[in-house]
Structures are given as structure tokens and as C-alpha cells.
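Q: I have 569 residues here and want to know how they pack in 3D. Can you give me a structure?
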Amino acid sequence: MAQDRADAFLRMIRRTQRGRLKVYLGYAAGVGKTYQMLQEARRLKEEGIDLVVGLVETHGREDTARLLEGLEVVPRQRRNYRGIVAEEMDLDAVLRRKPQVAIVDELAHTNVPGSRNDKRYEDVQDLLAAGIHVISTLNVQHLESLFNTVEQTTGVKVRERLPDGVLAEADQIVNVDITPEDLHERLKAGKVYPTERINTALENFFRAPNLENLRELTLREIAAQIDLRRHDLTPEDIAVVPDQVMVCLSSRGPKSEMLLRYASRMAGKLNRNWYAVYVQTPAEEATVIDAGTQRLLSGTLTLAKELGAMVFTYKGEDIADTVARFAKEYRVGHIVMGTPAPVPFLKRLLGKKNVIERILDKTRNITVVMLDTREEKGNLAEEDLAAVEESQTAGFSSRRQGATSATGHLLLSHLVSEDRIVIWNEPTDKRSVIERLVSSACRGQTEVSAEECLQDILKREEQGTTFFNEGVAFPHARVEGLTKPLTALGLAREGIGDIGTDRPIGYVFLILAPAYDPQIQLELLAAGARSFQNRYLLKELDAAVSPAAAYDAIRQWENSSLRAPAGKA
């Protein structure tokens, strides 16, 4: 079986130009991830593949170190941080060497401050963008969405984490699995940690119940990743997508991170894009809330994006009404919320309801999942959360909605053309960008006027900006009279001056969708979101000097993706 997986990755290397990622996934240190990775490295070298070791951590394990013999190892880069000398992968050296395959251990590792990238997975993404194939390793507890689960299960706060999307974008995933009993024997034999650390490990993280739980999480993750590519799109004539997920956030909502991770896991299990929605009431205007609250909110929205959500900020006085309208427009079937503020007894007698009850009054065929986010003891135990998740998702068919060419979904090159790509080499402003993109999108059609479309976009922007803090914007609107979608792509080299985001807005994907079919807008948003999370595509777009070159970059990226296999091992 291992030989078959290695052969599959070998065939993938030989037929593609863009870097591919293979991840050996395990549930704990010592299960054999690095060992199996190096065994494959040696097989690939024997097949004549140009391979180097970017970085491998042997942790003093002699059997692992022996597998490095005969492999080309790129010398590490030494960095001095606060008087301590640390060694990191020399990313620039690997890029200059440009092998066919690079071996890079411990995908979730945090680099020493001052490194080119903060995280090693970002180093790997740079290698992939340069056309270098990468084989790496990861333990399941490092997935961002599992932070709360792992903490409640093992009592350990995992410091080094990576977005789930990094694993989801891997071309192959191999589950490295041994029984907890066998892992204990390896630990006692000194094959995992030095002798002085063995008893501490056995008494803490490596307790049998912890390992069993982590092993189960790993198997579930593998199953979810396999299932992700097994399902087709939900038929467009379904009025409500029962497994579309949104999570409601507040500026100072307790345990917002728990809500986000729960929603992420639910959406991942259902193979759906999902939305994180923050409703800004007049009491939470930027001029009203303090700097600490603003930082807390910014961090929450950034985490939502890292977990794969599409983040929306709406302005509204009535939270329940705003949430209900969003759920209807975006065809949401599941709403995840925290515990609402209690309604005083006397107001209850007068008929006042909490926000969840009011949302239920305003919606139909929607399931609201309430997690206990109160600060007091008595929060839902992890097994209760899992039970809620199972009960809410059982019976729904899991169908993937996306825009990757390997699965036959929407292609960005089918949505834009050379004359619908606009490049700004000088600083510009939001209104000018929207006007120019609307004009480009509407060029050559007679169904609706550009002015009508512009007003619809601006009206939507008044409700809540779609210019996000992560450098990407998705202005969109559903337009009466349109029979087919219109799109345009803007590349703002110097950012958009009047948008107050930490990271300049560099990519703007404008969407005008027919009003009669909400599903079209969702598919277009999904296509844009997936495309502009790809570092390889963004790098190529940044290098494009003209709309024609930008369009050619999109085509080349999609052609490379098309050659990728649809499944994962």
C-alpha cells in the first residue's frame, strides 16, 4: 500500500508543472510520520527524482537519522533571537536549488521571528508556488479548528497551529497509524523521547485516553478529506441548502473562537463553504467601542478567515432581522450562535424574546445551533458538542461546492476575460475601483445598465463592506433583469487608499448575479474565495504586467490544477 501511494505521487510529479503537496498525518509524535516520509524520499531518489531535504527533525532517533544518509540536505539557516541561536530551513537556498521535490518536516512549526515567513506552512506554500513538490508531516492536534477539542480532551493548549485549509489543499494525505499500545512500547523503548522525558510523557500527554481520542480525531479527519471529493454540487433547484453554515459573532462575545472552530468543523463535515457574520449595531460603531474591543474583534475576524470562512460585516440596529435576511440571501441551513443575553422576567411576561427566538420567528427550515458560551462552569462538554454536531448533520447528503477545476466546478477563466481585468499601478479609491469594474463587467451586454448595477453594488456595500482585512474584496449584488452572471477582476498594485485595513486590498473580484437564482451568487463567491486563497495564483497575478498576462496566469494555474488527481490517498 505504501509503495502504491509513493508511485501515485511519483506519477503526479512527472505530469504536472505546479508544486504538489503530500502530507503524512498522524495523531502523536512517534507514530512514524517522519520515518515513512524519508522512506518515500529514498524511493523517489532511486527513481531518478531530483530531491533535497529542506529540513527534517530526527529528535535523536537513530533509525530516522540513518534514512537521511545518502540524501542531499540543504544546510540550515542559523538565526540569533534574544541571545539564542536557532536553526530554520533556509527557504531561499531551497528556492535557488529548485529541486523537483523538497522534504520539509513539521508543517505547523513556527519560525524564529525575523524569518521570511512566520510559519513553516507558508514556507511550503512558497515552494509550491515556485513549482517545487513538497512532502511534509503533521499531527492532527495542530489543526486550528481542533484547538478547543484537543484542549478539552487532553488538557493541553496546542500553541503551534495552522489553518485547516492548508491540509484541505494537500494533493495527497497519508494516515500514519499505530495502536496506542504500540506507541507506548516505542516510548518506553526510548524511540520517541530521551530517557529522562519518558515518564513525564506517559503521565501527561501520552496517557492512553488522550491517544485514543487523538487517534479517533485523525481517522475522522482522513474520512472527511476523502469525502470532500466524493460529492457533486447540490442541484441548483433546491430552495434552501440544508447544510450551508453561518456563525454569528459579536465584538465582545465570550468564546468566539469556540464558535468559529465548531462552525468550521460542521462546515468541513458537510463539505460546504461557510460564513462568519458580524452585525455592527450603532452601539458598536468604530467611534464608540474602545481600542481593546476593536483589537479583539479584528482578531476574531482574522481567525474566521484563517479557518476558511467568508467574513461579512453588516450594519444594523436589529441583529435578529439582519441575521435572518443574510440567511435567506445566502441560503443558510445552519446558524451557529452563542448563548444569548437573558431576557428579564418582567419583559418576558410582556412578550419580549431573546435574539435566537426572534431569529427562529423570522426564518423557516433553518436549524439554529446554540453553544453554551457563558463564562460560568457548565459549558458543553466535548462529547456533547460532538453529539450536537452529529444530530444536526445526520441525514443530509454531503455535497461539495467549489471552484476547483479538478472537480469540474466553476473556473475563474470562464468568469473573466482580458477585457474584464483592470490593473491599477497607482493608489486608487474604493468608489473608482467599483465604478471601473462595473463598467468592465457590463461591457457588451444590453440586459441592464451599468448605472443600475453600480447602485446595487453600492447599496450592498452600505449594508456591510466586502473589502476584507486579508487583502481581498468581493463586492457583489443580485441584479434584477440579468439572465447570466457578470464579473470583473481588479488588481490594485498599490492598494485602495480609503479602505482602513491592516493589509492593503490588492485583489477585487466583482460579481453581478441574476436576482432570480441565489445559488449562482453563492457559487461565484465560492469560486472567488477558493481562487484567491491560492498563493501560487496570487504570485502569478502579482507578476502580470497586463490584463492579458493576468488572464494567461489564471489559465496556466487552472490547467495545472486540471492535471491534479481529484482524490487523495
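Q: Anything worth noting?
A: Residues 405-562 form a domain with the Mannitol-specific EII; Chain A fold (CATH 3.40.930.10). The chain has three domains: 2-228, 245-393, 405-562.
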